[in-house]
Design goal:
The chain is α+β, with helices and mostly antiparallel strands. It has three helices and eleven strands. The N and C termini lie far apart (59 Å).
């Protein structure tokens, strides 16, 4: 009996720590979909600048994130560079505006077969930022998670990692980034 109770407690503890990505956001025109937790909200965005379009912003319903998670499509020509070049560009970009920024992690990896640069850094203000820059079909897809402090970052970063790994990108049928 004690073994069964202990097993149930361990199973419940494991389940509570495991994020369930039950909802899917899809932007067919831009060729991207991403899963997100059921208790998060998603807000479509119409912010578009010459070579950058924000598609959506995601955030937990029951918690305040200073920034949240957002996904963008960019067209800065990074896809013409090697992933090492993209990595160096992203690191330079993170520290250019705020020289007091500290890069915690910077790795080249893959998400669903597409080359990806993952970076975690802090800003001088204490904000923590996690980015995934995915190169797919001659476009740059950027998933960014910004948290006001380490505690908020630690609370949500594993969920954001699951979200990033759930991204599906299909070949877009458009020119530029204004999908």
């Amino acid at each position: 009996m004690m073994t069964i109770i202990t097993s149930l407690i361990l199973l419940i503890s494991f389940y509570e720590g495991f994020s369930q990505l039950e909802n899917t956001y899809t932007d067919e025109k831009c060729g991207i979909s991403i899963q997100y937790p059921e208790d998060w909200t998603v807000e479509d965005s119409d912010i578009a600048v010459k070579d950058l379009k924000t598609l959506a912003t995601f955030s937990p319903e029951d918690d305040f994130l200073l920034f949240g998670v957002y996904i963008e499509i960019e067209n800065f020509g990074l896809y013409k560079k090697s992933m090492e070049g993209v990595s160096e560009f992203q690191k330079d970009l993170a520290t250019y505006a705020l020289p007091e920024s500290t890069i915690i992690e910077s790795i080249v990896t893959e998400i669903n077969g597409f080359p990806t640069h993952k970076m975690v850094y802090t800003m001088g203000t204490g904000d923590r930022i996690l980015t995934y820059l995915i190169i797919a079909y001659d476009r740059e897809y950027l998933l960014t998670f910004e948290a006001a402090d380490k505690e908020e970052f630690d609370k949500y970063s594993s969920t954001v990692e699951e979200m990033a790994n759930s991204i599906k990108i299909s070949k877009p049928n458009f020119e530029g980034t204004n999908c």
